[in-house]
Every structure is written in C-alpha cells, then in structure tokens.
Amino acid sequence: MMAELRRLFAALKTEIALPGNTRLWATAQQRHPILNRVATIHTVLAILGDPGNKALRYKDILPRAVIAEHKRNPGAFWTAALLLAYSPMLNRLRGRIMGDAFSSDDLDQLVISAFLDVVKRFPLLQKRSRTFLHLRRMTEQRVFKKIRTRQKEIHDQQQLARLARRLDELDLSGEIKSEDSDVDREEMAELLLKIAGGKEPSANLELVINTVIYKRNLKERVYSTCGSDDPELKERIYQRIKRQRLRTLNRLKTIIGEARPQSDDNALCSFGQSATKQNSLIERNEACP
After folding, report:
1. Of 27, 38, 240, 273, which sits 20 to 30 A from 179 (CA to CA)?
2. Under 8 Å CB-to-CB from 44, ≥6 apart: which residues?
3. Contact yes or no for 199/255 (Cβ under 8 A)
4. Is the dihedral of CA 122, 127, 128, 130 positive or negative?
C-alpha cells in the first residue's frame, strides 16, 4: 500500500534540492514578504511539517504564498513543494481508503491528482484563512466522489452482465432458471429503462421487464388479457408477442453491449518514474482532470 506515494515523495525531495530552483525561490521572496522571513523552501517544509512548531500563524500564511506561486508558475518546483508540505495529510487520506474500486497504485495516483487539481482551483481570495482545513476537505471530497462514481460504474457493470445473462437464458419455452433478489430485479429494471428508454418502445421494455426480469409467465398474461374465449386466437396472439419479445431481446443485447462502462484507467496519471524524470511526472499530474 502507498508504494507509489513513497516513491513520489522521495523523488520530490530530490526535485526541490536542484540548484536551478534558487532563482525561483528568490523571485518568490520578492513577491511575498512572508517568504523573506524564512531562509529556504526547506525551512517552509520544516515549519509546515512540524506539528509542535510554535509559529502557527506561519502555517496559514506560508502555504498561501506557495499556492500563489504555483498558480503563477505551475512547474516542478512549486508542485513538489506543495506535495511535500502536505504529504502527511495525503498519506493519512490514502490510508483511509479501502475497497477494490481501484488498484492500490491507482489510489495513490488518485490522491495526488485530486490534491493538485484542488490546488489549481483553490480560491485564495475567497478563502483567506484555515487553508489547510479547506485543502483537506476539498481534496477528500474530490477523492471520495471519484471513488463513489467508480463504485457505481462497477455495480452497474455487474448488473448489466447479470441482465445480459438473463436475456441469454430465455429459451423458446419461456423458462428462466435464475433466481434474483427483489433488489436485483428492481435495479435491473431501472438500469434497462435507463439505457434503453430512448431506444426501444416502452411497450417492448415493459414486456421484457415483466416476463424476463420479474419472470411473470408470458402465456398466462396473454391468455388472461386477450379479451376472447377463442383458444386459437389466444395462441396466435401469444406466438406473435413471443416473437416480438425475441426481436426485442436481440436488440437489447446490442444496446447492453454498447452500454458497458469503459475503463477510465487513462483518467489517472502515471507516477512510476525515476527522480530524473520528475519534471515530466509533475506536468502529467497537473494535467489530470
């Protein structure tokens, strides 16, 4: 767990120590008086990372200066500084995440990309205090929203697979052997209406929902609602509706196949790089949605 985070933070320490960053730091000191009170970016990280540090007011002013510089120049140096400054928070957040919606490495990547996106959009003018609290809450909201979305996609994909099996199972006799809970049947019906509602007549969907998902006997329904006592007429109507249902099922199989959720692996960025490739690594992080 969190192997990607450990590798990333180790590489970032190398990044901020590069000699070329001295000019960036000196320029930032000219724009932010608070940065003149600390010698280097390492001092900033030490203050922000020390829970017992008495300079509590610095802990709100300093990160705001760093965030402002990151907004002005979102390159490797300021990105590395922010990630290292908030690495304890990010590690704690990552440790809270359980489940199998994403792989362990993808969860590491998700935490980082969510944080950087929050920093990019952080409203410094509107939120003038409690910067750490706002960053933490906004990052948590973004991470858990992404996880809930992915969990819903996985659940819908499982229900689509179950629904596809149910459609395949219907044989010419109209018998269905699968047993599902009431919740499963309701969810399958809702999902079918959602994905096929605008593509298939409602009467056809109602026919499939009643006789395939809820397994109500088609022949009994036709015979009881036919309005005629003529057995031959009832049988002709039954055969016609059964063929109609079969054609509907074939179309729905295609619709379900097209509705399968696509993998969103590309939405996450790759962090598995060496320190020598850290600049391009951070640039990709910032590009994450």
Report:
1. 240
2. 35, 38, 62, 66, 81, 85
3. yes
4. negative
Instruction: Give the tens place of pLDDT for each residue, 187-222.
Output: 888 888 988 988 999 999 999 898 888 888 888 888
d(CA 185, CA 179): 10
Q: Which residues lie closer than 8 Å to 62 by C-beta, 6 or more apart? A: 34, 35, 38, 44, 47, 48
Report residue 93 CA to chain centroid gap: 16
Q: What is the pTM of this model?
A: 0.67
- Cβ burial 100-109 (10 Å sphere, 16+ → b, else e): ebbeebbbbb
CB 127 within 8 A of CB 134: yes
Q: How far is CA 33 from the centre of its chain?
A: 39
CB of 171 closer than 8 Å to CB of 279: no
The span from the CA of 53 to the CA of 119, in Å, is: 24
**Residue 95: which of 103, 86, 104 has the closest Cα?**
104
